[in-house]
Structure formats: structure tokens, C-alpha cells
Amino acid sequence: MRKEIGCIAGLIAALLAAAGCSVAPVQLPLKPAQHNEERRIVEFVPDRPMIVLSFSGGGSRAAALAAAVSARLDRITYQPAGGPRRLSQDVAVISSVSGGSVFAAWVGLNGFDYDRVKAFEQKIGTFDGIGYLEGRAFNPFTWADLALTGRTRIDVLQDMLSEFLETKATLAAINQKGKPLVVLNASDMTSGEVFSFTPGVLDDMCMSFDDMPVTVAVSASAAVPVAFSPVLLKNTSWFDCVGARRPFGDGRTMLVTDGGAYTNIEAFRRARYRASLRADKLAYREARYVRLLDGGLADNLGLTAARRALIDPESPSYALPALGDGRLRRLVVISVNARSDVRNDLDASDERTSVLDMLDAVTSVPIDATTANVASAFRGFINSLVNDRNTLRSLGVPADFTIYPVEIDFDELPTDTPQEIADRDDVKSIATSWTISSNDVNLIDAVAGKLLWRHPCFRALMDDLRAAGTPESEAPPGITCPQQ
Amino acid sequence: MGVANIAFSDDCAVVIGEQPAEPDQPILDPRPVGRTNIPFIIADGLHCFSLLTAQPFTPLWQTGQVSPARVLRIEFK
Which of B44, B47, B68 sits opposite A253 (nearest CB)? Predict the structure, then answer.
């Protein structure tokens, strides 16, 4: 992925290569007559915004940026009917990838409370994740453990995450009424599809969502290829499912209709993928074992799952009807992208390109390219919603909603002074790693406040809500939110 | 994304769900997506539409293609 993780990839892979000839998959079959229950509920109230957060990958840098942005949301208040409210209370969906999933899981377990989020920032600035992983890699007991128990390198990452998050909880802990819909995303190594840890997807696999350890989902989301082995799930649907899975639903229509693929190729592929997870007679492959790698391989922004959460009638955050009938008037999507530009020595070298350099490239270049495509697709989705709103109005439906797309990206930082240029370059040079200094966390925290308050769509939201908060930056003059 | 308008003599919920094998079977796993006679936004693609109402209606379900460029119109009797 990035240089430092690329380095430990070789280290850990070499030291632990002998381990794991036989791998123990995660097996959590549904019990007889059981299906996965979605307990989270999203309320649509006209004078409250619905906030969707997406947290990108990028190791501890991404986790720190996600936390820094979230901390701000807990300090901004506005006055809807019924009394003052913090913006963090309106976060309905959090979709995350890799490093962003570490903070998303933290929020799912601990909530948005400002002090707790600040404690997360402090902790990530002192936690030496790389040291933990290297210590385990060099420990002969680890080799013996992996060789004898069927555990693999990903279990070491799970152990690290368990220690960092201080939890052995299962996803039942985040699947509770009153909590936001946290969607941790990985990539299906065989199909390349975004794999979202949701009750519905695990239902397709006849696996229990509530029994899945949080650290398994987070480690799948953060399983950097080569450095870590994939998370292996045994898909009970292909074996002896005794659970009462819900029906396939509307997606099957596209598969059974000649020409269905022409109507929406992405939805068709998604339905086809679901058929393979469900061991449906329409399955194009026998997905008996599903291998999950870093979510960034399929979508490093988490926006694909965020979009699905809004448009899928099976999701508790299905927002389309509420947008059309006036229950939802403000949809806010904050995409936190911790993309960096770490200096690459290859730029100044004509030496022979090493295998490790190429390995680094094949695990990072596709992620960057996919990220650009996903961001573009999401902008298309927003534009489509705006067009549909205008269509409804032309048909006499008083659709009255505004969309606030807030893309947080280090490239949006001001560069008017030498200090601002230095800050931008410094924050963009923070390596992707599980170890980050407290100084870097402080820098990320400072720029997060600037990035949020500078964004024209966030400013528009603050104005429209008449929200109270402490601006940390001036808005760029003459720039307006494109959707206003 | 696109817009659909499902016409029916009564006001009730429009649902989408799993298309049955036979026309005289109801859809499985119905999920509300809008109201009859009021245009609504829905994901583009092919859907299996039906109604949630105590009133009899025919057919029991219909498939329809939602496209970004036009409004899908379906009628239940």
C-alpha cells in the first residue's frame, strides 16, 4: 500500500511464511430459524439533517483524521423543534475502510462523545502498532502458534486491534437501537466486490452478524494485501444452512430477466454477487469460502457502501422516500479522505526497479485509481438526486431537499503563506502506518478543523441550520457549494 | 437514480420485492418505496413492483425499468 506498510509486508511475510498451511476459517452459522436482525433505526425529521460519514483508508493517519472531523461535529449545535441538538446526533451512517474502520468501530462501540473521541486521538498518537506487529513477527512463540493452531497473519492484526480498541465485543454491540449504522467494508479477494459487514450480507451467507467479532470485521477491512493474509469466512449457505435467511428480494428481478444487465450494470453485478453468496441457483461461482482483504482495494473511500445504504430499501437508512415526501430536507455526506503523497525515491532514481518497488505499486496504484473512480461515481449519484428532485418538482411534487457534499481532502488546505504550504506538505507526507506520532495527530487535528470549516458546503449547512460553533478557518472567498 | 409513478385507484404503499415464479403468486420480501399516484425517486434498474393494500388489484406484480432519463409509469387496476 504505502512504503512503510510495504516494508513490513516483506518482513512479516518472510518470517511467517511457514505458518498457516491449514487455515481455520471464521464459522458463525445462523441457528435454526434464525435470521440477522437489523436493530438500528434511522429517523427522518424535516428540521434535522441526515449526516452520512465515510472514512477512507490510510492507516493511523486515516483514523486520526476521521476522529478529528467527528470531534468537531460533537461541538456544533443548532436549534430544531424540541431543543438544542449536536450535529453528531444526526450522524445516521458511517461507512468506512481500513484505517477509517478502526475509528468507525470505536464510534460504534463508544459513541460520539467529544471527550471519548479526543481520548481516541490521544491513544492513536501513542499506540505503536508497527512495534506490536514487529514484536509478534520476531517472536518464536508466534511462529509456533500460527503453525500449530491454523491461525494466520491476520490473527496477529486482530490481536493488535483487540488491544487497541480494548474490546472482544461482537457486532451485536454496534447493532443497537440508537446507534448509527456503522458499515465496515472489506474487498472480496476473488470477485473484487465491496464486501460490507451488514446483517443483510451475512444473512446471504447464512452467517450470524451479531456473533461476528468486531476485530474480525475491522481486520478484514484493514488486511493490507501481502502484509496480512485475508480473513477467511466459511460461507454456510454453500454447506448446511439451517438458518431462516430472508428472501433474495428485488435484486433477483434483474438476474431472471433477459437483458436485465442493460438496465443498471452495477446493480446487476451486485445481484449476481449476492446470488453467489446465497448459493442461489443463479450463482456464477461457488463461493464456499470468502476471502476478504483491505476494503481500499475495491473502494478506498467507503462511498460505495454509503450510497447503497441510502438507496437500498433493505437498509434502515433508505432515504429516497423521505427525500421525496419532505421528511428529509437536508442530506449531508462528509467524505473524509486521508489521501497522502508520500515522497517516492523512485522519482529521482534511474536504478533498476526492484520487486518490492513493484509490489508496493501494485498494491497502491490500483487503490488510487479506484478512489478517483468511486469519488466520480458518487458525484454522479449526487447530481442524479438533484436531477430527480427537479423532475419531481416538474411533476407537481413539492420535493424540497438540499444535498451538502463535503469532501475533506488535504489538497483543499490553503497555501497562501509559507506556513500553510509547510503544513499541507507535512500532513500529506505522513506515512500510511499503524504507528503515528502525537505531533502528527495534533497536526491532523488542526488541519481537520480548517478543512471542515473552509468547505463551502459545510459553511452552507451551518448557515442553513443557523448552527453555533467556532469556525476554525475562513471560507474561500467567492466559492459556493455546487449544490446550492 | 430515476423517478417512477405507480397509478392505482386507491392511495397505498408501493413496494418492490422478489419476483415470484408465477404471475398469481405475491412478491416476497416487499419493501415500501413510495405511494401510489405520487411520483417518487428510486434506484435505476429493473424492479418488481406491487402494492400494499387490502383492496384487490391486478396484476399481483409488474416489472418495470427505471431510467435516469424518463419517468416510469405503471398502472395497477
Answer: B47
- Is B40 touching A (CB cutoff 8 A)? yes
Nearest to B45 by CA among B13, B21, B16: B16
Give B20-77 pLDDT, tens digit per residue.
999 999 999 999 999 999 999 999 999 999 999 999 999 999 999 999 989 999 999 9
The cell numbers describing A210, all together, are: 451479531
How big is the CA angle at B13 (ends B9 and B15), to the nearest 5 degrees? Answer: 115
Q: A336 near A66, Cβ under 8 Å? A: yes
Parallel/antiparallel/unpaired status of strands B45-52 and B62-66:
antiparallel
φ, ψ of residue B4 to 5 degrees: the values are -130, 150
* pLDDT mean across residues, chain A: 91
- The DSSP 8-state label assigned to residue B13 in this structure reads E
pLDDT in tens, A144-181: 777 666 677 788 899 999 999 999 999 999 999 999 99
CB A392 within 8 A of CB A324: yes
C-alpha separations of A236 from A53, A157, A199, A208, A458 in Å: 32, 25, 15, 10, 44
What is the arithmetic mean of pLDDT over A110-136?
Answer: 93
Question: What is the DSSP annotation of B18-65?
Answer: EPPSSTTSPPEEEEEEEETTS-EEE-SEEEEEEEE-SS--SSS-EEEE
Q: In this structure, is the dihedral angle defined by the CA atoms of residues A153, A155, A158 and A163, taken in order, positive or negative?
A: negative
The arithmetic mean of pLDDT across residues A113-136, rounded, is 92
Chain A residues within an 8 Å CB radius of B40: 320-321, 324-325, 392, 397
Q: Are B18 and B28 in contact (CB under 8 A)?
A: yes
List Cβ neighbours of A142 (8 Å cut-off, separation of 6 or more).
A16, A136, A156
- Is the pLDDT reported for residue A51 higher than 90? yes
DSSP labels for A197-253? E-HHHHHHTTB-STTSBHHHHHHHHT--BTTBPPEEEE-GGGS---S-PPP--TTHH
For residue A363, is pLDDT > 80? Answer: no
B15: left (phi over 0), alpha (psi -120 to 50) or beta: beta
B-chain residues near A397 (CB < 8 A): 38-40
Give pLDDT, residue A12.
56
pLDDT grade for A377, boundaries at 50, 70 and 90: confident
CA–CA dist A417, A386 (Å, integer): 37
**Cβ proximity of A196 and A305 under 8 Å:** yes
3-state SS, residue A76: coil
Q: What is the ipTM of this complex?
A: 0.95
Residue of A nearest to B2 (CA): A388
Q: What is the pLDDT of residue A22?
A: 61
Q: Which set of grid coordinates corresponds to residue B8?
A: 392505482
pLDDT tens track for A287-346: 999 999 999 999 999 999 999 999 999 999 999 999 999 999 999 999 999 988 777 788
Rounded Cα gap, residues A52 and A89, in angstroms:
11
Residues of chain A contacting B38 with CB distance shorter than 8 Å: 324-325, 397
